[in-house]
Amino acid sequence: MHYGADYNPEQWPEEIWPDDVARMREAGVTMVSLGIFSWARIQPREGEFDFAWLDRVIDLLHEGGIAVDLATATASPPPWASAAYPEILPRDEDGSIFWPGSRQQFAPSSPVYRRLAGELVAAIAGRYAEHPAVVMWHVNNEYGCHLNFDYSDAARDAFRRWLRDRYAGIDELNAAWGTNFWSQRYSSFDEILPPRKAPYSRNPGQMLDFRRFTSDMLLECYLMEKELIRAAGATQPITTNFMGAFKPADYARWAEHVDLVSDDCYPDPNDPESFRAAAFQRDLVRSLKPDVPWLLMEQATNALNWRPTNAPKAPGQMAALSAQAIGRGADGILFFQWRQSRAGAEKFHSAMLPHAGTDTRTWREVVALGDALAALPELPAGARDARVAIVFDWENWWAVEASDHPQNGLDYLAVVQRWYRALHRRHVQVDLVPAARVGEGYDLVVAPLLYLLREADAAALTGFVEAGGHLVAGPFTDIVDEYDRFRDGGFLTQLRGILGVDVEDFGALVAPDAPAASPGERTAPFSGPFGAAVGTLLAEELRVTDASVEAFFTGGRLTGRPALTVRDTGRGSARYLATVPDEAGVQAVVDHVLAAAGVEPVVPELPADVEAMRRGDVLTVVNHGPERVSATVAGTDLVTGEAIDGIRLDPYDWRILRLPAAAATEPASGPEGAPGA
Ligand code: GAL
Q1: Active-site positions?
Q2: Residue-wise DSSP of 394-427
Q3: pLDDT, tens digit, for every residue of 467-490?
Q4: Verdict on whether the full-model pTM lies above 0.85
Q5: Which long-range contacts (CB under 8 A, 24 or more apart) does 401-404 make?
Q6: Which domains does the chain show, CATH number per domain?
Q7: 141 annotated ligand-binding residue
Q8: Do the strands 330-335 and 134-138 form a parallel or antiparallel pair, or are they unpaired?
Q9: Is 306 marked as a binding-site residue?
Q10: Ligand 1 centre and the CA of 336: distance in Å?
Q11: Mean of pLDDT values over 109-130
């Protein structure tokens, strides 16, 4: 178990450093991420490196037994870089420049930025590749976080290069982008621009490729640095910190290039449901690289600085969220940052060592968590515990939220997370995977809004159902190919066989958040074996060809038409849902399909605010709710070593248990005095 934080010693006089190391030891810190924003300090001028201070810090840490996750420092170029080479500055779609004075002001595709970054990385890696303190490499920082897109001339040139690689020729690009529409036909790659500000809707194929390109440019930067680190002879694992479901970077493609996934996660303490969003994020990053434990690279000990209101974490909440991460596959808990800054934009951001000192709740909780983590034995790696998967696909995310659709209010992540929450409330373990991976042993697969469906993915979903799996798909699914073009033959062209339905029309409903005065239907009530439910956003007109209708619309223009269909395949089943149910509606459908697929909770009958998650033979239970609960789980407490037979959890209390060999868990009870509530 790693435990630690970003460490920014350059913000402090050198006399403080020994105190830092002493305090780190007191807190049980095992590793720090060093030098993430140190470019200006390491390289004060082009061609001039100052490593003396970094040598001293690393040696000091090493003497103190603290390992180093060494950063490549390329995330924030120093002022001299853009003063000498203004072409490295990125631009927005209007052509406005992102100037220095903050961070991340670099155009990822700029050859000059890449040369400068490469020189820095080569120098750092060359110097520290064999330093015994360095156990991991931290490439850049949160690629794309602030600057989602760059439309600069560097991006223009790189976009043309990227398109030349992707398409056999300009005719193929024209066909893919459908440029016969609106006289957009290109006669040469040299005419193509990034989708800069334009009078009206831009070409959807171009927009989709620009998103792919953007993710690929950031990935190219990562790969360049990784190769330089390896070329210097470094053998330690290399990572770059992800941000969960971060739309601009297709982490499903990135994951194969990191030795381990590391992730930054900042749930909002003001949101009582944010622990569920955090659970989603942890399950997503675990699913990206399921065989290798991931690392929680950044979280906050307490309040942040960057939300409109930066509430403190409740007592115990920081440890509860840490236990959640471990339970969902993390092998380390790190924070931003070690010592609270005394200047700069983040001076109010909490840290392991608060500005208010060690006589603080934050410090006491930091020390207590360090003690607990130090007691944990090695936990199982690569356990596959989820019987349920939700399909999550970045390219589909980009395409389904493009403009000019029947319903322009679709929020892919929000809908996916609604399904996730319904499963989470039932204590069902879930993976989030691309459709290509649904054959990895799941009983139930949910594929909401899978608008862009590649042939291989359609084949994987079909194969899953044919092999006895239970699928729930729709609405607005199987509409376009990977270029965002309709396929011949209508909609659901690839899945209609397995689903036994066709979609005639999408039936957009007024979005729930539209102004109150907006005319039109807002909801589509429907009813089935799970009772009455409410659909939103879309109420599709289905033609049932080879399925039974499980639920019908009960109001509005589609009254009496199918809302949920099922095609039984013997062992498995394929359901199609014609609407986006609201929170309660998704819960009703989830309960129904969990029963149909025979999926059991990790621990039965826990209250919805209590989480239970498996990691092989390790069970983690966390109480995020406001009441004391008890649960009749048995095993060995991996922090205290005690044999456990039944637990009581106060708010934010948690246990990590090794289950007895039989791995049986008895039904638990809810809030005290209300068994099963
Ligand atoms: C992250 C970033 C850190 C720090 C932190 C504050 O996005 O990687 O450097 O700024 O947010 O919450």
Answers
A1: 142, 298
A2: HHHHHHHT-SS-S-TT--HHHHHHHHHHHHHHTT
A3: 999 999 999 999 999 999 999 999
A4: yes
A5: 402/204, 402/207, 402/208, 402/484, 403/201, 403/204, 404/201, 404/204
A6: 2-148+236-375 (3.20.20.80), 388-597 (3.40.50.880), 610-665 (2.60.40.1180)
A7: yes
A8: unpaired
A9: yes
A10: 6
A11: 98
